[in-house]
Batch of 2 targets.
Target 1
Amino acid sequence: SSKVTLNLQVVVSVFFFLSLYMFCPPLPLNPRLLEADSKSMRSMSGSRRNSGSSLVSSSSASSNLSHLEEDTWILWGRVVNEWEEWRRKKDKLLKEMIRKGIPHHFRAIVWQLLANATDMPVKNQYSELLKMSSPCEKLIRRDIARTYPEHDFFKGQDSLGQEVLFNVMKAYSLVDREVGYCQGSAFIVGLLLMQMPEEEAFCVFVRLMQEYRLRELFKPSMAELGLCIYQFEYLLQEQLPELNMHFRSQSFHTSMYASSWFLTLFLTFLPLPVATRVFDIFMYEGLEIIFRVGLAILLYNQTDLIQLDMEGMSQHFQKVIPHQFDSCPDKLILRAYQVKYNPKKMKKLRTENRLLKQRIETLEKVRSYTEEFVNGLQTQLEQSRLQEAELLGALKEMQDKVLNLEKRSNSLPDESNVAHLQEELRLVKLRELETLRCFKEMQDTVAELNQRWQHHTARGGGAGHWKESPKKNAINELQDKLMGARLREAQAQAELREVKLKALQLESQNQIHSKLVSRQQQESTALQERVQYLMVQNKGLQGQLSEMKRKQAEFECKSKEEVMAVRLREADSMAVMAELRQRIAELEIQKEEGRIQGQLNHSDSSQYITDLQEQIAELKNEDLCLTGRSPGERDYLSSDEDLLPSPLPASTLYTSLPAPCCPSPHLASEGSSDSDVEERDTNTDDTPPPQIFPGMVCTEGLDH
C-alpha cells in the first residue's frame, strides 16, 4: 500500500509540475550527475540522439535549461520510485543531488523518505492526541502568532496554518512530556507544514526529534546545545583565530548569535528559500551542515566584522548577513563545503566534553560531601558551644543558690547566739516581774492613802467642825499636812520607781543593741571571708573557661586542617583519575583508528593493538586502585563512546517508535562528509584539541 501511495504522489507531483513548472525559477543541476546514472541518461537522451544534430544547433539557452529541468524532475521521479536501490547503491550521487537542492514538489515525499517517516505507528495516534489536553497549550498559542508572521499560510489569528501548527505542537507535547514544547521548534514544524499535511509533518517531526539530536537540543537542560556551541567555538578558534580574538575582546559570545542557528536550523536567520536548501542537506547529513554554513558565513564576513564593535556586529548579523545569499543560495552551499570539517575531531570534542562534564560532576559531588562534612563539624561546634553556655548558666545558677543558702544560714542563730538570747529573755522576764511587783506596791500604797483620806474626811468633815476647840483644829491641820506629806512621798516614790524602770529598759535596750552590733560585726567578717572565697573560686572558674576556649580553638584548627587535607587528597585523586581516564580515552581512540585506518600491516597492527590493550589494562588497574573499585565491576571506560556515562539515560532519549530501516550515515557519527573530505581529514592531526574555555560545561545561559 505504501508503494502505491508513493507512486500516486509521484504521478500527482509530476502532473502538477508539467502545468506549473514554466512559472518556477530554473534549478541548475550538474550534468555530471546525469552521466553517473547510465540508465537515466540512456532513457532520456536516446530520443534526442536519434533526432539529429539540428535540435542541438537550433535550440536556445532557455530551451536547454527547460530540457535540463525536465530531466531533473524525471530523475527525481526515478529516485523516489527506486528509493531503496538508490540508498544502497547510489548513495554518493543522491548526496550530490540533495546538495544541489530537492525540487519543491518532491520535498514532501523525499523528506519523509530521508527521515524514514512514511509508515509510523504514531501516525494512527495523531487524531486521538488532538482530543487530549496538554499543559503547554497556552504557551503554544502565545508563540504561534510569532511563527512566520509574514508568510501567507500563517497570517491571521484564525488561519489554517496557525491551527494545524497548534495541532502538531500540541500532539508532540503529549507524546514527549519531558520536552513538551520549546521555543524554536515551531519554525521547524512550520516549514514541514508548508510542504506536507499535518499528519505527515507530525511523523517527520517526531523522527527528527528522535534521530537527528533535536530532542537533546530542546530538552530543558539544553546540554546538547551547549555541546554544539563548544564544538563551534573550537572550529572558530581553529579556522578563524583573528575573528575569534575580536569576538572575545568585544565580549561577543558565540551563544549570542549561534544559538538560534542550531535551535531553528537557520530558519529564523536566513531567508526561507536559502534556509530550505540548508534544511534539505540537514535531512540527509544532520547537524554537520549547520556547522559548515555557520563557519562559511563568518568566513565570508570576517573582514567586515573585525572592524565593528559589539553593537555594530549585532546590527550586521541582523540586517546585512541574512540577505547576502538571496540571489544565489548555491554560493553559500559551495562555501559551506569548502570549510574544513573533521568528524573525528568533533567526536573527540564530544568525548572531551563528556570527560569534563564527568569531572565537574565528580568535583561537585566531592564538594557537596566536603560541605556536608564541614557543616557537620560546624553543627557539632555549635552544639558544643551551646552545651558550654548551658553549663556556664547552670554553674552560675548553682552559685546563686549557694549564696542564698549561705545568707539564710548566716541569718539563723547558732548555739552561742541561742544561749545569749535565752539569757536576755530571762533578764527581761525578771525585769518584767520586778516592774509588776513595784506596780502592785504602788497600787497598795495608793489604796492605803485613799482609805486614810476617806477616813480623815469622814471624821473631820461634819457641819460643826468649826465649833470645835482650837486645839483640835490645830491637830486636824497637822494631820492634813502629814497626809499631804505622805501623798507627796508616795508620788516621789512612784516617780523614782518609774525612773528606775526607764533605766532598766534603757539598760536592756543597750544590751540588745550591743548584741546586735557584735552580731553584725561577726556577719561582716563572715561576708568578707565569703567574698574572698568567691573571688578565689571565680579566678579558678575563669582559668577553666580560658582553658576550655583554648581547647575549643585547638579543636577548630584541627577540624579545619582535617577538612583542608581531605579536600586536597580528594582533588589530587580526582585529578589523577581524570588524567588516567583521558589517557585511556586517547588509547582507545588510537586503537580504533589503528584498526579502521589500516595504516599498519596485519602483524604490526596486531602488535600495536596488543601494546595499547596492555597500556589500557595498566591504566585501568591504576584507576581501580584510586577509585577503590573491585576488578570484577564493570569498567565504563571500555570504549570511546562509554568514556563517560551519559547524563541523559538512553531510555529517556527516544519514545517507543520503530527504528529506521535505513539509518542515514550521518547518524552513526557526528555527521558525515563526502569521500574527498574524509581523505583530507585522514591526513590531519588527530591529537586532542586544546580546551578553549576550561570552565565551560555545555550549558549556555539560554531562556527555555
Target 2
Amino acid sequence: MEREEVNRREMRSFLMPRDPSIDRRFRPRPNKQLRLFDEVLVETSDSSTDCSDTESEYTKTGDEGGSIDSEIETGPQVFLRLRPVESPSKLYVISDCGNVLITSAATNEYSSNNVNRMEKHYSFTNIFDSQVGQRDIYDKCVGPRIIDEECVTIMAYGTSGSGKTYTLLGDSVRAGIIPRALEHIFTLYNKQVYTAAKLKLINARMVILEDDVTIKEMQIRRQLLALCPDMQAQHQRLKQVIHGDHEFEEKPAEEVSVMIWVSFVEIYNELVYDLLTLPPRQQNLEARRKNLKIVCNKGQVFIKGLTSIFVRSSEEALKLLRLGQQRLTYASTAVNTNSSRSHCVFTVDVLKYHRTGMTTQNTYKFCDLAGSERVDKTGTIGSRLKEAQSINTSLMVLGRCLDAASSIKKKANADVIPYRDSKLTMLLQAALLGKERLAMIVTVTPLDKYYEENLNVLSFASIAKNILFKQQLVKQHNTRYSLFAEYSQTGESADREYISQLEAQNISLRAEIDRLNYDIVLKLQLQEEKLRKELTDTFQTTIHTNLKQCEERQEKKIAMLNREFEAKIASIKRKYEEQIEDLQDEIEELKSPNSDIEIIDDE
C-alpha cells in the first residue's frame, strides 16, 4: 500500500502540476557551469582581500618589480545605469552591496514566461541609479582608461529611449562621456600637442606624411571645420562645467609629439557610411553616400577610404562630432520620437612620436548602439521595419560573439568568435578578441511595461560580464626618426607662433589657389557652354534665313509660271474663240436667203 501511494504521488498531473520551485526544469541555476572550488583556491592563494572579479582589471604590464606576467586574464567592465523616471517599478531592486540588480515578476501581468517571472540576480561592475550624474559615470567608466593611456572601446547598449545617447553626448548643460573625454585628452597632452599633421594612421599603419600631403590634410580640416556650426559659446560653457566637475592633470613636457585624429562612421542597414566626408563643390549636386568596406589585414581592422581629421583642440573635435551627428539617420517610433536607426562609432586616435623613434597609438572608440526593439511595441512598418530587423540582427550577432568569447576559456572545443557575421562586430573585433579594453554601459528604463525587454538587455550584459581576456600590451611601432619631433620640444613659443602663422598663411594661399583654379575651370566651362549656344543659335538663324529665301524664290517662280501659263491659256482661248466666231459667221451666211448655195433636203 505504501509503494502504491508513493507511485501515485510521483505521477504527473496536468490539472495539479508541480510547483515551479520543485520542478527541476524551472529551478534557478547559472547559465554556465562554473568550477567554484577552483575560484576558492585561487582566492586563498592570493594575498589580496575584498577584491571582486573586476576590481583588479586593467593593470598595466611591466609595473614595479616587473613580476607581472603578460598572461594575466581580465574581462570587460560592465556598468548599469537606471534612467530617472517619475515612478520607478518595484520589480527592480539594487542589492545592499550596490553591484547586483535583483529582478522578479510575481504575476503574469508583466511576463508570460515562467522563467522570466523567477527572481534573478545580475552582477555588474557598478550600478548607477537615477541619482548618479554624468561626472561619476565618467570617473568610473572612462577616466581611468585615459589616465592609464590604454586603448578602450566604450559601448552604450540598451532599449530604445533608455538614455544611451544622453550618456555619451549629454546636453547643453550636462556634458556626456565623449565631451568630457575630449577635454580630458587635450588637457592631458596640452604641452605635447603638435600643430601640424605629420603622423597619420593609414590602413592601420602609422605613416609619416610628406609636406604636400600634410598641406592637403590641413586643407580638408579647414573645409570641414568651415561647415561645422558655431559652438564657441557652448564649448566654453561645457568646458567650465567639465573643469568644475573634474581636476584633470596635465602631463609634463616630454620629448614626445602628440597628434590627435578623429573619425565618425555610421552602420545603417549593414552598410558603413562616413559621416565626415566633404560635400560636392557644386551646390546643385546632391551628396551621395558611399558604402565603405571594412578590411581585416594581418589582425588589423580598418575602414578603407574613411576620412580621418586632424584636430588641435577639443572644440574642433566637438564641432566635427556635432557635424557627424547632424548626418545620422533618425526616425520617430512609438517608443522614442527621436530614435537612432543605426549604430555609430566615434573614434579618437592619439598618435605619439617619441624622440627615440618609437611611435605609440592609443585608440578610444565610443560606440552608440541602436536600441534593441520589439516590433509589436515600436509599431514599425515599411522602411522602419527593415531598419529594426537590421538592428536586431547586428545586436544578435554581437551577443553571439560575446557568448563565444565567454565560453572559450571554459570549453576546449568552443566555436570561433563569429565577428565576421556583422559589420558592427567586424569593426569592434579588436575589443571582442581582447586586444583592446572593453567597457559596456547598459541603460535600462525601470518601468513595468519594459520588463521583458530589460531582461533581454540584462541577460546580454551578464554574458559580457563572464568574458576573460589575456592582458595585452600597448601598441608600439618602430619607425624612422624625423626632425619634426625636435622642433616640437626645442622651439620657442615665439618661433612656434610665427611658424604657425606661416603655415596658416601657406594653407590659406593654397586654398585660395585651389579656389581660383576651380573658378577658372568653372568660368571656362560656362564660356564653352555660352559659345556652343551662340553657335547653335547662329546656325539655326542661318538655316531659317536660307529656308525663308528658298521659299520666297519658289513663290516667285510659281508666280511667274502661273502668269506664263495664264497667258498661254488666254492666247489659246482667243484663238478658239476666233475660230468659233468664223464658223458661226459661215453658218449664218449659209442660212441667209440671198445665199447662192442651195440647201437640198433629204425628202
